Amino acid sequence: MKVELVPGVYWVGAIDWGIRDFHGYLTDAGSTYNAYLIVDEKITLIDTVKKGFVPEMMARISEIVDPEKIDYIISNHVEMDHSGGLPETLQRVKPQKIFCSPRGRIDLTRHFKEDWPFQEVKTGTELSLGRYTLMFLETPMLHWPDSMMTLLKEEQLLFSSDAFGAHYASSERFDDRLPDHPPGYAHQLKKYYANILMPMGTLITQLFKKIGELGLSFKMIAPDHGLIYKNPAWVLEAYQKWAAGIATAKGLVIYDTMWHSTEKLARALVEGLMDAGAEAQLHHLRSIHYSDIVTEVLDAGLLCLGSPTLNNNIFPSVGEFLTYLKGLKPKNKAAMAFGSYGWSGQAVSLINRELEAMQLRVVHEGFQVRYIPDPEELDRARALGEKLAREHLRA
Ligand code: FEO
After folding, report:
1. Which ranges of 276-374 would DSSP assign to H, the alpha helix?
2. What is the tens place of the pLDDT at every residue in 164-181?
3. How far is ligand 1, taken at its centre, from the CA of residue 149, in Å?
4. Entry pTM
5. d(C-alpha 78, C-alpha 80), whole Å
6. Is any atom of ligand 1 closer than 6 Å to the C-beta of 162?
7. Among 154, 106, 148, which residue's Cα sits nearest to residue 128?
8. Is the CB–ligand 1 distance for residue 81 below 6 Å?
9. Is the Cβ atom of 79 under 6 angstroms away from ligand 1?
């Protein structure tokens, strides 16, 4: 079935129903690799798909035109889920040109070591296809150095590459039926932002400013993953809010435990948060995937990180989470460390060091107990949770 966005513009991507591990990110709803075909005097393919999905893309293209008639390919992004299918595509499609950003040319060459007919484009460069005109918008570090977007001017249709995407395999192609259908999509959009784009909030805010300066507005946004937005206002609004790093009155207690002592403290802390009327969540690091936890971190106002001390160090799962979190550069959050220990208690101070390195507001020196917390210590942990919520989670 042909999926037409606007006259002569088609979705020709692929659906990856089964993927659950996307370079470590738990893609619990699968994904899509969206590619788009513009049928005009110059027939143009925007992006390709992940290696292994080229036959699916070619079948969709072949329903519309002979792939050998494609004149141009536009590569908005080098990452392998969008350009991994280029070599196989180019065995059949012989484009006159492959348009990409200057950095895209360098990086595509580095990846594929091929002398393909690249043509560099920059922000504001226009390309006439016949009745349609494309304009390019470089978006370096959103989220790779090469990244760019492509605007189909006459239809105010933005091909946004990874931005505004969601890992979501579905028979739905458009957002007509949001917010309720397809189920869980809005959560996957947030999860994608948290895991891929959280570090780029300042750049995203600058991009919105640039879009305003260029006088651009969009009637439709077509990202490289997930749904195509016929009503882009809701997704633009969500991105502006996330990029601003606005924290809500939500506190997270994130921990791992060896013999349940740190777990007891974690439960006491979360009870304290609830006593104060805050939205509270408890996350055990070996039960809940870190990519799901950082989805909640995105708009949380308080993080309590707990670890036992193991071999004079942080428990491994806590260390892994802190490494991942540090790379995502969370902002506007209060934070504290807690934990239990037997004969040495380095975990809390090591967590504090990591929280400070992330430039989070460390609002307590750390709460730790030796071996098993007694009732009085659990009462103190609960009271601390309540105090932290009252002082740092104002709605
Ligand atoms: Fe969907 Fe950065 O690749």
Report:
1. 290-297, 316-327, 346-357
2. 999 999 999 999 887 777
3. 13
4. 0.96
5. 6
6. yes
7. 154
8. yes
9. yes
